[in-house]
Design a protein that fits this description.
The protein is globular and about 55 Å long. By secondary structure, the chain is α/β, with parallel strands linked by helices. The protein has helices spanning 3-11, 33-37, 73-88, 119-137, 154-160, 188-198, 200-209, 215-221, 233-245, 249-268, 271-282, 285-302, and strands at residues 43-44, 48-53, 58-63, 94-99, 142-147, 151-152, 164-168, 175-176, 226-228. Bound molecules: octanoyl-coenzyme A. Octanoyl-coenzyme A (CO8) is lined by residues 67-68, 70, 103-104, 107-112, 150, 152-154, 178-179, 182, 184-187, 278, 281-282, 298-299, 301-302. Pathway: Lipid metabolism; fatty acid beta-oxidation.
Length: 303
């Protein structure tokens, strides 16, 4: 039974249960559910590859957008379409998200989408970022991030929306919300997603300092749940999924919603204002200068 259906059944019994956000009502860049319901769950788009195993009810989604799986508008659109297809397929109960790119899970938002773009384009981009977060954070599926590489900023956010995080134990990999290092500010729903996971104080320090944690530091603060050698990451994710699949869906889904609803509602009821904030902030000359400087640092690092 879906979370929405479970809630409809149980609401009669208890008016205290939280109301879910409308699953298809976010109004983002994704395709309509009816159309998607008719499509198969296995799919390969340019940037996202999905393999669904009907016998286990588990899908593996691989991000394959070279070089670093940065979250561009195109990427986010494909990501949301793939996610919505899986969500519509009631035989799909679990989702493992991982990367096909070496050394990187996701480099976070595509900085080029925020630099030198028109306000209209920035608004469209931000709406797609919101959409990805809303869909993942409110997903009925069990979601596990198999973090097989570095995962800064929006990449960390994506991992944080999942129910469980397994990271490859490699000293070169880092994870965290490092927005302040770029001279930008993580929005309230980034902050709340992290605080919901690791607590207020750790989040306050991490966000102000733009901390990028090594895998062992991330495990220590609870940003990830488990470290494994990289070659074991998918096997471990699959084993962990089995444990989660043993819990009745409706009970787990309602519990998940109870834990996340307040944060989801805050964005759902402030989407337009949040888009406007982003556009006003990101198009400021001073912020554009910071982004240019950061892009130059990235290039210099490579040279
Ligand atoms: N966007 C666009 N391009 C990127 C990004 C990115 N996020 N990250 C890396 N690239 C590019 C590099 O510039 C480089 O391009 P080129 O080949 O043309 O020189 C290419 O990808 C490869 O990068 P690296 O050589 O650095 O690859 P490595 O494997 O050595 O390192 C890393 C991979 C660790 C991911 C590294 O690239 C890195 O640290 N990238 C920056 C990550 C980052 O800081 N992301 C923050 C994005 S902002 C965000 O997600 C939230 C914003 C919230 C906005 C709120 C405003 C109100």
């Amino acid at each position: 039974m879906s979370l929405g259906a479970a809630l409809r059944v149980t609401r009669g019994l208890s008016g205290l249960l939280p109301r879910l956000p409308p699953r298809w009502g976010h109004g983002g860049a994704c395709a309509p559910p009816l159309l998607l319901a008719q499509q198969r769950s296995n799919s390969t788009s340019t940037k996202i590859k999905v393999e669904f195993d009907p016998s286990s009810g588990v899908a593996v989604m691989r991000m394959q957008s070279p070089p670093v799986n940065s979250l561009s508008l195109d990427f986010l659109t494909e990501f949301c379409i793939s996610l919505e297809k899986l969500e519509m397929d009631k035989s799909c109960r679990g989702l493992i998200i991982t990367s096909s790119q070496p050394k990187v899970f996701s480099a976070g938002l595509d900085i080029l989408e925020m630099y030198g773009k028109s306000p209209e384009r920035c608004g469209e981009f931000w709406k797609a970022v919101q959409e990805m977060w809303l869909k993942l954070y409110s997903s009925d599926m069990i979601t596990i991030a198999a973090i097989n590489g570095s995962s800064p900023a929006g990449g960390c956010l994506m991992a944080l929306t999942c129910d469980y995080r397994i990271m490859a134990d490699h000293p070169r990999y880092t994870i965290g919300l490092n927005e302040t290092l770029l001279g930008i500010v993580a929005p309230f729903w980034f902050k709340e997603t992290m605080a919901n996971t690791v607590g207020h104080r750790t989040t306050e320090m991490a966000l102000q300092l733009g901390l990028l944690y090594s895998p062992s530091e991330a495990l220590k603060v609870g940003l990830v749940d488990q470290l494994v050698p990289e070659e074991q990451i998918l096997a471990t994710a699959t084993q962990t999924m089995t444990k989660w699949l043993a819990i009745p869906d409706h009970a787990r889904q309602i519990t998940k919603s109870m834990m996340r609803k307040a944060t989801i509602d805050r964005l759902t009821s402030n989407r337009e204002a949040d888009i406007q904030n982003f556009v006003n902030f990101i198009t400021k000359d001073s912020i554009q200068k910071s982004l240019r400087a950061y892009l130059e640092i990235l290039k210099r690092k490579k040279a």
